Amino acid sequence: MKSHITTGCQCATWLEEGEQEACAAGRVLSEALQDRESLSLKVSETQPYSSHTELHYQGPFEVGGACMPSAYIYMEHPATGEPLMLGRLTLQHNKPGEFTYSPTAIEGNVWVPDPIHYPLTEQTYIVTKNQGIPGFINDAIPDGWGEHLLQRMQHDPVSRFDLLIHSPNNDRAGNLMTGLDPQPLLGTGQEPLPGLAGLEAFIDACDVIYDPTIDEDRLKKFGLSSQISSLGGARPKRTFVSEHSLLLAKPADRFDQYHVAPLEHACMSFAANKGMRVAKTALHNDQKGSTLLR
């Protein structure tokens, strides 16, 4: 077993196997150091990412004797394209989150997404905003649409940890991926994206997801589990592939007060005609309304 133990419960242990044993060892170490060290926290002097306050961890952190759920954050290496384990995020309900870079990332001095607020160091970052999730990781989690979709599928209350783990890795913002294993499994982030032949099914799913009269058997026919996208914000979104290019589909929403897709297409076309560099857009029209493709 390889491990790198600093202090505290699971949040301070890097391991490839035997996580429970190392977690217990971390607890014992934390208790032993309580008489000699004190918890020293300092507020970041710079304006943190996404307006959250960061507390930098120095010394043992008491977590009530309980191991907290952890998600491992992977990153596609900018130079090699290979996935590597960037760090570990540990969350607990109503308590600050903890993020620590992996020894591999530190030893390799890898590029990191937010070097200003989360520079590459061995320290553990204590995060008190975004429900304990660093801003650059929070940006790779779906918002309202993805949360509603997952809520409809699993019936239980959906936490940010659920969204982080159960949203797909093949279309996350940036080059981040997540998982429950210390090292990314083979094929992580390489799952194929649907072609435009699946657009109609996605549009149908966007319509029925808000209908409480649709039972579970009928929901399964719409394949909701395949409609989750990490890019979904407050409005429905889905990534498709067409002729080796990625397209973002943004269909009409039943709560729209006006026709959003045609308006966005008109604005983007106007900007392009004026010489501005903007994404190319197109409209897909059917009986349910207009869907923006860009």
Structure description:
This protein is an alpha+beta fold. It folds into two domains: 3-139 and 174-179, no CATH class; 196-293, no CATH class. The chain contains eight helices and 13 strands. The chain has helices at 19-33, 103-108, 135-138, 144-154, 160-166, 199-208, 216-221, 260-273, and strands spanning 3-5, 13-15, 40-43, 54-58, 70-76, 83-92, 95-101, 124-127, 176-179, 238-242, 245-250, 282-286, 289-293. The longest helix is centred in the N-terminal third of the chain and has 15 residues, at 19-33. The chain is globular.
In short:
The protein contains 8 helices and 13 strands. It has 294 residues and is α+β, with helices and mostly antiparallel strands.
Characteristics:
alpha+beta; 2 domains; globular; four-stranded antiparallel β-sheet; 294 residues; disordered N terminus; seven-stranded antiparallel β-sheet; 8 helices
Break the fold down into its secondary structure elements and pairings.
Blueprint (H helix, E strand, L loop, with lengths): L2 E3 L7 E3 L3 H15 L6 E4 L10 E5 L11 E7 L6 E10 L2 E7 L1 H6 L15 E4 L7 H4 L5 H11 L5 H7 L9 E4 L19 H10 L7 H6 L16 E5 L2 E6 L9 H14 L8 E5 L2 E5 L1
Antiparallel strand pairs: 1-2, 3-4, 4-8, 5-6, 5-9, 6-7, 7-8, 10-11, 11-13, 12-13
